[in-house]
Design brief:
Largest sheet: 8 strands, parallel
Bound molecules: 2-OXO-1,2,3,6-tetrahydropyrimidine-4,6-dicarboxylic acid, zinc ion
Oligomer: single chain
Order of helices and strands: EEHEHEHEHEHEHEHHEHHHEEEE
CATH class: Alpha Beta
Number of helices: 11
Distance between the termini: 14 Å
Shape: globular
Strand content: 5-15%
Helix content: 25-40%
Number of strands: 13
CATH topology: TIM Barrel
Radius of gyration: 20 Å
Number of domains: 1
Strand order of the largest sheet: 2-3-4-5-6-7-8-9
Structural class: alpha/beta
CATH architecture: Alpha-Beta Barrel
Length: 382
């Protein structure tokens, strides 16, 4: 970290901040043309990423995860070969990007499949989607009691369980579904499997932040950039804002503030996971718009803005680059990444594009609206 970066108040324009190269512990890279369009954005910042398995059909076997990993690496090669893809995707680091694969838990999954996938070096974790909780989760788990043997195996072999923590009971208000999940599902699960490593993904509430902070060392949480920036008012600011719609949905301001406190606290149980979830602009801006925020293009810049605003820039590196690998039992990266403070008031300040048209190997580019569209972020990747 640059000694000139100030922990109190904004840094002077031109100040540089160098951190160990970060990892993203929660991404949706999709497949096919969308994969080719987006993968460079993640690879240019992050050395590794935990890749979510919610494709159609979902990734439920080690073989499917291995094949998907090959498609990701091939897509990265193609986006490099095609020169700089439109937007900020030119991938200075792309060549050494490692996708970390996950399996999608279903009620019919054979525990031996996970054991084999881990032994073969294909699977880094498995993902629990309560059926119906989010995009492509209908094949997920209806009742945790139905996957007891799977969870026992994961506990025994040390394969982390990544959880989308929301109840799906339609009688529970959507803004309460995470807090209710803790009481109804998570507490009993942790009691049944005290040795299981669990990541409570994309937490959105003060309840979740407090629960994770107080729980034992086997429970950690990822926090997205968008849940640190927006609250539920943002969804309706001046009209309906589909680009701020994601699951779990943003909550009240007090929850956003609690997440900021957790992320910048220096507590190793909280680490970076963007939950970047691209949907084509047409699919977001529709009568039934898809959930998901595309934050990969400016992810580290987005987090840096929060850490600066909280006077905690000196803790960005640990959150982004140290705590995640420590929880997963992986070595931290050796490379580095440098950000530069820009003068946000200057005419020359670079704004986030209002829309991206990304090359994807077909004749029609993929149109996406990046998180922070049109905003000037204080820190830019060098
Ligand atoms: N949330 N969208 C998606 C996934 C996430 O719950 C999530 O992890 C998606 O589109 O895959 C979203 O809003
Ligand atoms: Zn989720
Ligand atoms: Zn996700």
């Amino acid at each position: 970290m640059s000694p000139t970066a100030s922990a109190s108040g904004p840094a002077a324009p031109g100040t540089r901040l160098t951190i160990r190269r970060p990892d993203d512990w929660h991404v949706h890279l999709r497949d096919g043309a969308m994969l080719r369009a987006v993968v460079g954005h993640t690879a240019r910042q992050f050395a590794r990423a935990i890749v979510m398995p919610n494709l159609r059909p979902p990734i439920t076997t080690a073989a499917a995860a291995a094949a998907y990993r090959q498609r990701i690496l091939a897509a990265l090669g193609e986006s490099d070969a095609a020169g700089a893809p439109a937007g900020p995707a030119s991938a200075p680091f792309g060549a050494d990007f490692t996708p970390l694969m996950t399996a999608y838990l279903t009620e019919s999954l054979d525990p031996a499949e996970l054991e084999r996938g881990q032994a073969e070096g294909i699977l880094t974790a498995a993902k629990l989607y309560p059926a119906g909780a989010t995009t492509n989760s209908d094949a997920g788990v209806r009742d945790l009691a139905h996957i007891g043997p799977v969870l026992e195996t994961m506990e025994r072999i040390g394969l982390p369980l990544l959880i989308h923590g929301e109840v799906t009971d339609p009688a529970v208000d959507i803004f309460d579904r995470e807090a209710v999940f803790i009481e109804r599902q998570l507490i009993p699960l942790l009691e049944r499997h005290p040795g299981l490593k669990v990541v409570f993904e994309h937490i959105t509430t003060a309840d979740a932040a407090a629960f994770v902070a107080e729980a034992g060392p086997n429970l950690a949480a990822t926090i997205t950039p968008h849940h640190l920036h927006i609250n539920r008012n943002s969804l309706f600011a001046g009209g309906l804002r589909p680009d701020f719609y994601c699951l779990p949905v943003a909550k009240r301001e007090r929850h956003r503030l609690a997440l900021r406190a957790a992320a910048t606290s220096g507590n190793p149980k909280f680490f970076l996971g963007t939950d970047t979830a691209p949907h084509a602009r047409e699919a977001k801006e529709s009568a039934c718009g898809c959930a998901g925020i595309y934050n990969a293009p400016y992810a580290i810049e987005s987090y840096a803005a929060v850490f600066e605003q909280e006077g905690a820039l000196e803790r960005l590196e640990a959150f982004a680059s140290t705590f995640g690998p420590r929880f997963y039992g992986l070595p931290p990266n050796t490379g580095s990444l440098t950000l530069e403070r820009q003068d946000t008031e200057a005419e020359t300040a670079e704004a986030v594009p209002v829309a991206l048209e990304l090359a994807n190997g077909t004749s029609t580019p993929t149109r996406l609206v990046p998180f922070h569209a049109g905003e000037v972020l204080p820190w830019r990747l060098v």
